Structures are given as structure tokens and as C-alpha cells.
């Protein structure tokens, strides 16, 4: 006999396990909030904008493929910015006590929509340190690119500054809590259905019919103790009345 699950049964399962689902969802939200606010270290970001121009000689040499040349130069410069040739000098001048690899992990370099603008971003638990590293990296790159590429075509358009009340870019507690609630809700619903699936106790006549594959011919109703006592009192009262009428006659 094939078993089918109706929509009503699904809602009944959710209703029966509602407290479990709500508890898991709230627990996930609370844990996420505690971790986001009190455990994870806030990370701040500072950015500086660099403009990379082509030199006159480069424009004359690559005039037919100017767009491709610009992109190639930007990609080359992006790699140079994060190379030990630049970062070792930055770490030394700022006395950061970091290797080039450790400093590299804090820096992100990206071109602005394929243009000649390069956005140099630094992430650090200290907003002042992030701005200091970003500005120093741009300055060292502007100076060292002259010897590395034999060009003088880099200009710093804007320096990284620290706001009065800087906000961390991560973690984002509200977003983390929202995600945790969704995950907790899904986990709660999954656990509710899993518990229902493994619950093989017989609760009603439908369960018996499902288990044995036989139709139900009749059901013996259960009478609560309170109702049973009430019926007994009525019966005793009726018997007393009948006995009194018999004696009177």
C-alpha cells in the first residue's frame, strides 16, 4: 500500500513541532548575534585611487590597440603593486613587522570598470593602520614604478582618510543574524520532519489502518475519569429516586 502525505499532514507536523522550530530559529539568531558583536574582530577598510596614464612613446607605439594596451598596463601595474618589490619597502618604512605575504593578504587592487583608474584598498582591524598602509603603498608604487618600468605615468588622485566615526565593513551583525534565522528556520523544519518520520508510535486509528493495511470497522471511544464519575453520580441519583418511589408505593 503506497503511503501518501497530504498538505494537511504537513501543516499538522509543523504545528505540532512549532515550538521546536521557533526555538532553533531563535537560538541560531542569538548565537549569530553574540558571535558577530562580541567574538569576531571588526575589520575596517581604507582606499586610495591611482591614475595610470600612457606615456607619449607608448601611445605612439600601441596606437592601433589602445584599449588592449591600457588593460595590459593596468593588469601589470596591479601585479607590481602587490609584489614584494613594493610591499617589502612599505613594511620597512612603516615598521609593520610583517612579511610581504602578510601585507599582501590585506591589500586588494582592482581597476575601475576597465579604465585607467586603479582602486587600492586595505583592510585592517585598525582604521588608522589601514589608511596608513594604503597611502604608503600608493606612494612607494608611484616612486618605484619609475625604476621598474622606466615610466613616470602614475598619479595619486585621492588619498585614504579616516572618518570621525568609521564603520567596519565586516562583520555585518544584522545580515549575519538574518542569515542565521533563515538557516535556523530551515534546520528546525528539517528536524521537525525528521522526528516525525522516525516517530513510529501508534496515535490514532489512521495509524493502525496505515500499519496493518486493513480498514477500520469501529472505534471504542475513551471516556475521561471526570465524565465517568459524573455518569456514576447520575446513575446513583437515578437509582435512589427509583428506590424511593418504589418504597412510597
Please sum up the structure shown.
The protein has 249 residues and is α+β, with helices and mostly antiparallel strands. α2 packs antiparallel against α8. The chain has helices at 7-16, 18-39, 56-61, 66-81, 84-94, 100-104, 127-149, 173-198, 205-212, 225-248, and strands at 44-52, 107-111, 117-124, 154-158.
| Sheet with most strands: strand arrangement | 2-3-1-4
Largest sheet: 4 strands, antiparallel
* Number of DSSP E strands: 4
- Name the overall outline: rod-shaped
Distance between the termini: 66 Å
Sequence of secondary-structure elements: HHEHHHHEEHEHHH
Class based on secondary structure composition and strand pairing:
alpha+beta
Kindly state the percentage of residues in helix: 55-70%
Task: Please tell me the overall pLDDT.
Answer: 82
Bin the strand percentage: 5-15%
Unreliable stretches: 58-62
Kindly provide the radius of gyration, computed on alpha-carbon positions and rounded to a whole number of angstroms: 38 Å
Q: Helical segment tally?
A: 10
InterPro entries: Bact_polysacc_biosynth/exp, GNVR, LPS_length_determ_N
Pfam families: GNVR (PF13807), Wzz (PF02706)
Family: Belongs to the CpsC/CapA family.
Keywords: Cell membrane, Membrane, Transmembrane, Transmembrane helix
Amino acid at each position: 500500500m503506497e503511503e501518501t502525505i497530504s498538505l494537511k499532514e504537513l501543516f499538522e507536523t509543523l504545528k505540532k513541532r512549532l515550538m521546536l522550530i521557533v526555538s532553533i530559529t531563535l537560538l541560531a539568531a542569538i548565537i549569530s548575534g553574540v558571535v558577530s558583536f562580541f567574538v569576531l574582530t571588526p575589520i575596517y577598510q581604507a582606499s586610495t585611487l591611482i591614475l595610470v596614464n600612457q606615456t607619449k612613446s607608448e601611445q605612439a607605439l600601441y596606437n592601433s590597440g589602445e584599449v588592449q594596451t591600457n588593460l595590459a598596463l593596468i593588469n601589470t601595474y596591479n601585479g607590481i603593486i602587490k609584489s614584494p618589490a613594493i610591499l617589502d619597502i612599505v613594511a620597512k618604512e612603516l615598521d609593520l613587522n610583517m612579511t610581504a605575504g602578510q601585507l599582501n593578504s590585506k591589500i586588494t587592487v582592482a581597476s575601475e570598470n576597465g579604465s585607467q583608474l586603479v582602486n587600492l584598498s586595505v583592510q585592517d582591524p585598525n582604521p588608522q593602520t589601514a589608511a596608513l598602509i594604503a597611502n604608503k603603498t600608493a606612494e612607494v608604487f608611484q616612486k618605484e614604478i619609475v625604476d621598474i618600468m622606466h615610466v613616470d605615468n602614475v598619479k595619486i588622485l585621492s588619498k585614504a582618510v579616516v572618518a570621525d566615526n568609521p564603520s567596519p565593513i565586516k562583520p555585518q551583525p544584522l545580515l549575519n543574524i538574518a542569515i542565521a534565522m533563515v538557516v535556523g528556520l530551515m534546520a528546525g523544519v528539517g528536524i521537525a520532519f525528521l522526528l516525525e518520520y522516525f516517530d513510529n508510535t501508534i496515535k490514532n486509528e489512521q495509524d493502525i489502518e496505515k500499519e496493518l493495511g486493513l480498514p477500520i470497522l469501529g472505534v471504542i471511544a475513551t471516556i475521561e475519569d471526570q465524565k465517568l464519575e459524573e455518569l456514576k453520580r447520575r446513575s446513583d441519583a437515578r437509582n435512589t429516586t427509583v428506590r424511593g418511589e418504589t418504597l412510597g408505593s
